[in-house]
Design a protein that fits this description.
By secondary structure, the chain is mainly α. The chain is built from five helices and no strands.
Length: about 70
């Protein structure tokens, strides 16, 4: 699960809630959570601020599929 989604769900927020708090389009949030797009740094900062986390917590570690399957 993408860190953005994990933190959002842990906070009890819907994508719509996060959109209202940040002004970030819900399509952008959804695509980020599905790993289809990486938001711009400014967008990530707005999301991090709204979730009360550091921007680094929303970034995934670069791990190859092979490494994930080996675990």
């Amino acid at each position: 699960m993408h860190p953005l989604r994990r933190i959002r769900v842990r906070r009890g927020l819907t994508i719509k809630d996060l959109q209202e708090r940040t002004g970030v389009n819900r399509g952008t949030i959804s695509r980020a959570e599905r790993r289809e797009r990486t938001p711009l740094p400014l967008t990530l900062q707005r999301l991090a601020d709204a979730l009360g986390v550091e921007i680094e917590e929303l970034m995934e570690e670069e791990t190859s599929k092979e490494e994930k399957l080996a675990v």
